[in-house]
Structures are given as C-alpha cells and as structure tokens.
Write the structure tokens for this entry.
Amino acid sequence: MATADDIPEAERLHVTARADRVSLREKIGLGIGKGLVDGSHGTLHVLITPVYVMTMGLSPALISTTVFIQRIWDAMLDPLIGQYSDNIRTPWGRRVPLMLAAALPLAFFFAAMWWFPAGSSKDFLFVFLLAASLMFYAAHSLFAMPLGGLIIEATDDYHERSRIAGVTLAFGFAVQIGSQWIFPLSQLSFWGGTLNGVRWVATGCAVLFLVAGLVPVFLCKERLYKKVAVRQKRVGFLAGLRAVKGNRSFVSLLLARCAFSFGFNAVGMLGNYLYVYLVFGGNVKDSAFYYGISGSSYHVAAIITSLLVYPWLERMFGKKRTLQVSAGVMLVGCVAKFFIYQPGWKWLPMIASATNGVANAGVGLMAVAMLADIADEDEIRTGLRREGLFSSLLSWVDKAGNSLGTFITGFLLVWIGYQARPAGTPLEVVIPQSESTLFLMRVCYIAAPALGALGTIWLVRHYALTRARMYQIKDELAWRRATAEDAAAANPPSA
C-alpha cells in the first residue's frame, strides 16, 4: 500500500524558486548568530569540567547541580522570551531589537564566569559560578529565541528550509571546533598558569561573541513581520501553549528531541573522563591536546554532514526518515564505543566523537527544518505566525533533556566511585581511577545514548507533515497572504 511518503520523482526533485531562496548575506548573518548561540554555550561546557573540577577540585556532583540549575533556568526562560518575541511590536520588527539588547550582557557574563578570586573556597566557587552563569543564560536566551524565529521564517520552501538549517548548524559546529581548543590553548606556558590562561583566552572569546552578536542585527530581516505578524492579535502564553498542545506532529517531534537529548547528555561528559582516565591513565595535561582533536572530529563530521549529506538525504527520503537515520548513526557509534576506548589508544576514540557529531547534526538539523513546516501548518489552522513559541518549546525540551541528563552525570560519577582531584593538587599529579569505575563509565557511556536513539526512532513515527502536504500548505498560505494584503489595501485604517 502506498504511504504519504511515496512522493513522485518530479516532486522529490522540486526546484526551489528564486524568490524562495535565502540570500548569501542573510545566510551568513543567521549562521554567525547561530555560531554565537552554540559556541558560547559549548565553550562554557568545554571549560567547566577541566577548570572547576580537574583544576579547582570541585566535586562533579556540585558541577552537575550547577549545570542542572543553569539549564532549568535557561529552559524556563526560553518559552517566555519566545512568546514575548512573537508578541512585541516595534518599528524594527519583533526579533532584531531583542538580539541587539542581549549581545553585550551575553559577552560580559561569559567572561565573568572565569574571573573568580584566586584562592576562593569551594563554596564560594559554587555560588560564583552559579550566579554568573544564570546571568549569562538570561542574555543567551534573549538572543537565541528571536534568532530561532528568524531561522524558521527565513523561507517558505520545503527543501530550502533544510539547507538553511544545515548552514546555520554548520556555523554553530564550526565555532565549537574552536571551543575544543580553548583549554589546550590556556595551557601554553606564556600565560603563567592555567587560571591566567583560561581567564585571558575566555575574555578574548567574549570579545568575539560580542561582535558575532551584532552581525545578524545588521544582516538579517524579519521576512513576514509586515505581511502577517504586524496585523495579528497578541496571544497570551498559556493560550499559546493550549493551542500547540493538540498538534500531533509537534508533540511527536518534541518527545523525540527530548529522548535523544536526554540519552546523549545523561552521559555526554563521560567521554571526557574516559579519554583522560582510561586512555591517558589520569594525565590531564597530556590528554588535553588529543581531547581537543577528538572534540574537533565531532564538529568537523557534523559540519560535513550538515552541509553535504543530510540535505541530500532529506531530498531523497523526507525529513522524518532522515531524522530516524540520524538516530540510527548514534546506535552504530554506541556499539563502536565498546571496542575503541582502550588504554593508550589515543586516536580510535575519535571514531566515537565523529559518529556522535554526525548523529547530533542530523537530529538537530531535521528538527529545525521540521519546526518551520509546523509553523506553517499552525498558520493555516490559526492564522498566527508563532515561530518564537515553537522554537522556544523545542529548545525547552532539548534543554530539559540536557539538564536532567547532566544533573544525573555528576551523581553517577560519584556512585561509580570517581575520585576527584584534591584542592591544590597540580595537574601534573595523576589521580588514577579503579578498574570497576572505568568499566562502569564505559557501560553507561554506551547504554544511555543507545536507549535515547531507539526512543527517538519510535517517538517521531507520528510526525505527519510530508512533502506533498507542505507544498499544499505553501500554496494556500501564499493565496491567503495575497488576499489579506489586497483587503488591507482596499480598506486602509481611518485617520
């Protein structure tokens, strides 16, 4: 029996109209904005373990608690800011003014997290990191949610949406390649110590983040603000949530994204610990260079597949099937992890990093592209453009899975017997871990992402927006908008 995905060859090879293509200028602006969003968050989490745990001696459980609070805070803010960015009306649109307001505080508080007073107690470090990071994430959300709205509404074309998602994700992954080298760079001798190195390198990153935050403000525009959004009624937050609750495709995508995020992030930090303590026997300094290469392999693989592989797969098989293939790649990588993490095997763990990158790129790319289709379907049903709300809710479930998973990781490490570095112990001193601890690390690092990937493949099965349906929606929306513009021109508001 034919299914909704059995699309004729002519439609599968649909050529995107010139009017639906996004200009290079705007692609660069959206990409640099995405680089700031992913790069600033990624750099924070690349640094937090080697600086606060491995250097300053904080318990992994305290760091997990901090990261959990950060992510819950961030996840709480996202829907509120997303909804606000849908409802705000200014002469410059809904999105860009919020991004402009967020750029400076985002950069400032990123740098502040690493300038704690020398000789601080562990209690002070915990409070300092928590306070500075919460301010950082408030600014981060104020920038990221409006940007997500701009990305979603950038084009009406089914395939161009996948290209835009691929380009913006590639920028994000490219910036995160650099983030893998922040800690190794801070270890260079001319800085005069690890902390000085981290502080000055992080401050340099903050300057770049500020510049990156301003670029999309000047290069990007809100395409549908004057056509649709400026005339639509404002909708309250709870009313907006009720309206999307019955959207089966959206709920299916949310659940799948949450399962994947939780499965990966529940043990994501263990890749770092396995590299340091299993492959390098606990030598933090010697592992820094190779771990940087390993992290870079994750992002290089993600960039290549985001730009070259996944847009082609989406064109051949549709977005839902491509997302399921991405989750399948994670399963393959989980099997490989059992064999390639061995003492002294410095290079083979990069296979696991690369497969993680390929899988995360595919799931993330397809989720954004599918979200744009959902926003169009919502406009058909409600007459409203609510990209900010949809983007923020997807971000919320991603971060909820991320935060809960990260929260579990620290306590998992304590439970399996991880021995933290005593305060004041030089990095040159090796802190070994027991055989049972290393074995359990590896088992957990394999099992949780595999279960999350299986859940993703199963949960997304209810997503129903096929190519055929989206081309129908595109044509109907074009007719509705043209009719609304004609009516507005014929009946201008009275003076």
Notes: The chain has one domain: 22-216+243-479. Residues 302 and 361 are 5 Å apart (CA to CA). The radius of gyration is 23 Å.
